[in-house]
Design a protein that fits this description.
By secondary structure, this protein is an alpha/beta fold. Helices cover 39% and strands 19% of the residues. The chain has a single domain, classed as P-loop containing nucleotide triphosphate hydrolases (Rossmann fold). It has ten helices and nine strands. The chain has a nine-stranded mixed beta sheet, with helices on both faces. It is globular.
Length: 274
């Protein structure tokens, strides 16, 4: 029956995808199953930290999540998750002096064990291994960190290989009725511009990544380029470069100790008017 999917989507109160950041969620409320959300940035801008923050929020709303970490070891990935969840920059061994921090860490570990969550760490992961894991876990949302680290199909060049990988990821999203969140490296192009804000065309090695992504978010931290300016130190921008479900916009977030968060009203006034 024509219109059934449309009516079912708008008749449910369930949000299929939320980031946990208020301004962003107002623009991304229409993300549907079968979609690809791409998070792009230059190195050291916080792609993985931002993806983990989004993942945590989805787990808090009891979404079933598979997080595929291709770029780091299991220990490094777990440390990142614990750090973002506890807001402890460098999780440490338990000591008498750090007992309160360790309590937070054990609570975070329990949080991940209690939720419908699977962290799958495998370097050089193939498309076939990814699909097998998706069929095994049957998640609602899959994170891939990062798309350039997938073992690429045979192709004449890297760009064509990534395009083939993106096609396969899009197919899996549609066939398995899930949302895929990718992190992607950005090229060096912003470094040569006066305005260092990344653009959608800066996504590295994949013309189809721009075309097949339903949402593209780019991360920009002005303090990275002006490290002597304390006013910029803890600021970050999330730039919606593409959005099939709503408007394009820029949103300011707080970025402190490697962790993204919404500004409190007081913080926002200081950031905007300082």
């Amino acid at each position: 029956m024509f219109g059934k999917a449309f009516i079912d989507f708008y008749n449910t109160d369930e949000k299929l995808f939320e980031t946990g950041f208020v301004g962003l969620d107002a623009c991304l409320s229409g993300v549907t199953k079968g979609s690809i959300v791409t998070i792009g940035a230059r190195p050291a801008m916080g792609k993985t930290s931002f993806a983990v923050s989004v993942c945590n929020h989805l787990l808090e709303t009891d979404k079933k999540v598979l997080f595929c970490e291709i770029d780091s070891s299991e220990l490094t990935a777990e440390r990142q998750f614990i750090s973002v969840k506890t807001k402890i920059r460098q999780p440490i061994k338990p000591t008498a002096e750090k007992i309160k921090e360790w309590e937070k860490i054990t609570q975070a570990i329990q949080f991940y064990n209690d939720k419908p969550f699977e962290l799958f760490c495998k370097s050089n992961m193939t498309i076939e291994e990814l699909e097998e894991k998706i069929k095994e876990e049957k998640p609602e949302i899959v994170f891939i960190d990062s798309i350039q680290c997938i073992k690429m199909p045979k192709a004449p060049n890297l760009t064509e290989a990534i395009n083939l990988a993106i096609k396969e990821v899009k197919r899996m999203a549609l066939e398995n009725d899930l949302i895929v969140v990718l992190t992607s490296q950005a090229s060096r192009a912003p470094e040569a511009r006066y305005d260092k804000r990344p653009m959608i065309s800066d996504l590295r090695n994949g013309s189809l990544l721009e075309d097949l992504s339903d949402v593209v978010l780019m991360i920009y931290r002005p303090g990275y380029y002006d490290r002597d300016n304390d006013d910029l130190k803890n600021r970050a921008e999330i730039i919606i470069c593409k959005n099939k479900f709503g408007e394009l916009s820029n949103f300011e977030l707080k970025f402190e100790n490697g962790i993204f968060s919404d500004y409190s009203t007081e913080d926002y006034i200081k950031a905007v008017f300082s």
